[in-house]
Amino acid sequence: MHIVITGANRGIGQALAARYTARGDQVTGTARSGDALARLDVTDPEQQTAFANGLADRPVDLLICNAGVYLDKGQELETGFPADMWQQSFAANVTGVF
Ligand SMILES: NC(=O)c1ccc[n+]([C@@H]2O[C@H](COP(=O)([O-])OP(=O)(O)OC[C@H]3O[C@@H](n4cnc5c(N)ncnc54)[C@H](OP(=O)(O)O)[C@@H]3O)[C@@H](O)[C@H]2O)c1
User: What are this entry's molecular-function GO terms (predicted)?
Assistant: First the structure.
């Protein structure tokens, strides 16, 4: 299987990439920085397009939309959740996945 995993440079994404690779699958992992993985910030439409074009001749059997943020951890409803934080969260966790 060819498996695409976003946010594969650390955490759960990295662990999944290692396990699938060890199982013999072809893994395309992405990261926001560095040269080891395919470059993709999921909030950047131009990077999404460039990444998709790069995969054009390689069908994807499984897409794991792992990249995400939890910026509002610990926020209080009365005092927290600033608008820019909400916007960044949706850009990564909702629009970025779509
Ligand atoms: N761990 C949990 O208990 C838990 C529970 C529920 C849901 N989740 C979700 O499961 C996923 C993985 O969790 P985790 O604990 O492994 O998280 P993590 O250690 O914080 O790793 C998040 C990954 O997402 C990447 N990322 C964040 N914003 C991105 C963006 N705009 N474009 C591309 N990549 C981006 C990060 O890249 P950088 O290194 O560049 O920041 C990193 O590779 C996340 O979506 C998280 O919200 C986790």
Answer: 2,3-dihydro-2,3-dihydroxybenzoate dehydrogenase activity; serine 3-dehydrogenase activity
